[in-house]
Amino acid sequence: MLTAYVLIICSNSTIVCIIALHRNLHEPMYVFIAALMVNSVLFSSAIYPKLLMDFLSEKQIISHSACLFQWFIYYSLGCSEFLLLAAMAYDRYVSICKPLQYPNIMRKRTVQMLLILAWLLPACQSSVPMIVSANKKLCHFNLKGIICNSTVQKLYCVTSRLLNIYGLAVLVTAVICPVLFILFTYIRIVIVCYRSSQEVRR
């Protein structure tokens, strides 16, 4: 597990450094790739160290606040991954389906806004259940699982139905919608490429 963590950190950091150092790679596609690599490093750093400590320890112990923080990072960066992939899909869609409009659409400011949205939106969405859960009374103290996630809610004396509905809404906006958007863009790309190849053959 330590080897996997070191490989993730080293490989992703190398790619980010290469993209950052070479100005000819400062294109939207490579910027989004670098953002994905950074997201992967942050996600791995939030999960792997605690997992390694747990495997090496006889007792797996985590404080309530640390558990909530891990839960926040887990969902925030996990959802960011989907939004970053959606941003990449949009970039490829504009590049292939609207090549003449690409320079005007995918400007530096547009890329910056997409990156901010990809990280800020999930962070804001994930912070709501954390804030609500911070002062809740615990009735159970044994968490089933290797990481802190939504199963933490089962430890509280009172479960919130409203919080569960909110969680489903976040799932739709931060995961399902980006996945559907990615599918739509790549289907459109395949159709455009197929039509172009047909025209070339004629």
UniProtKB/TrEMBL annotation:
Extract the InterPro entries matched here.
Answer: GPCR1_Superfamily_Member, GPCR_Rhodpsn, GPCR_Rhodpsn_7TM
Cell location = Membrane
What are the record keywords, sorted?
G-protein coupled receptor, Membrane, Receptor, Transducer, Transmembrane, Transmembrane helix
Domain G-protein coupled receptors family 1 profile, by residue range, is 11-202
Quick one: a GO cellular component term? Answer: membrane
Question: Membrane-spanning residues where?
Answer: 6-22, 29-48, 68-90, 111-132, 165-194
GO MF terms here are: G protein-coupled receptor activity; odorant binding; olfactory receptor activity
Q: Report which superkingdom the organism of origin falls in.
A: Eukaryota
Q: Which Gene3D superfamilies match?
A: Rhodopsin 7-helix transmembrane proteins (1.20.1070.10)
Q: Which family does it belong to?
A: Belongs to the G-protein coupled receptor 1 family.
Q: What name does the UniProt record give this protein? A: Olfactory receptor 13C6
